[in-house]
């Protein structure tokens, strides 16, 4: 069993991280730094929308593979102060140099992912209510689109350039 020492992060510190150009989201009361994950499909706009906020519902509404969930552990940086998870582990907190930490095992993290936290749905800040974070599947037929572009290019060449 691998135990991680998670920093306890309150709302004030979450805002401070934002000013340090770090993009953090909250999923199941755990805080993830997704700054380096902006290249993910649909990442930048949607991660920006939930920056510093609880993205649990958005994350759980989309099907993620086990590999994706395991990858999340590498982005885990802390636990939200005064959250349900924090209160469960509060008695085990450690204070070093005025910074509060809580030990959290990989098994507890996986258990949290399997038992989604219930909360009220959050409306999107975007004009249209599109699915949050990542779509389950992209229905664009890329080979057909590429073929049409090539066809137009060939037609343009023969009609106007030759």
UniProtKB/TrEMBL annotation:
GO cellular component: membrane
Family matches, as SMART domains: Cyt-b5 (SM01117)
Keyword Chloroplast: no
Disordered: annotated span: 110-136
An annotated Gene Ontology molecular function: heme binding
Pfam family, one: Cyt-b5
Membrane-crossing segments per the record: 140-159
Residue ranges of every copy of the Cytochrome b5 heme-binding domain listed in the record: 6-81
Keyword terms: Heme, Iron, Membrane, Metal-binding, Transmembrane, Transmembrane helix
Protein name (database record): Cytochrome b5, putative
């Amino acid at each position: 069993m691998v135990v991680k020492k998670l920093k306890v992060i309150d709302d004030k510190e979450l805002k401070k991280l934002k000013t340090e150009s770090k993009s953090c989201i909250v999923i199941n009361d755990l805080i993830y730094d997704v700054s380096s994950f902006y290249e993910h499909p649909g990442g930048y706009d949607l991660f920006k929308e939930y920056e510093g906020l609880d993205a649990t519902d958005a994350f759980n509404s989309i099907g993620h593979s086990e590999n994706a969930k395991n990858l999340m552990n590498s982005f885990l940086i802390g636990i939200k102060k005064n959250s349900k998870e924090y209160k469960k582990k509060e008695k085990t907190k450690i204070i070093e140099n005025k910074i509060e930490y809580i030990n959290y095992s990989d098994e507890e993290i996986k258990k949290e992912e399997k038992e989604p936290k219930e909360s009220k749905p959050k409306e999107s800040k975007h004009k249209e209510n599109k699915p949050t974070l990542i779509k389950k599947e992209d229905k664009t037929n890329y080979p057909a689109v590429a073929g049409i572009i090539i066809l137009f290019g060939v037609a343009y060449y023969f009609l106007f350039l030759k």
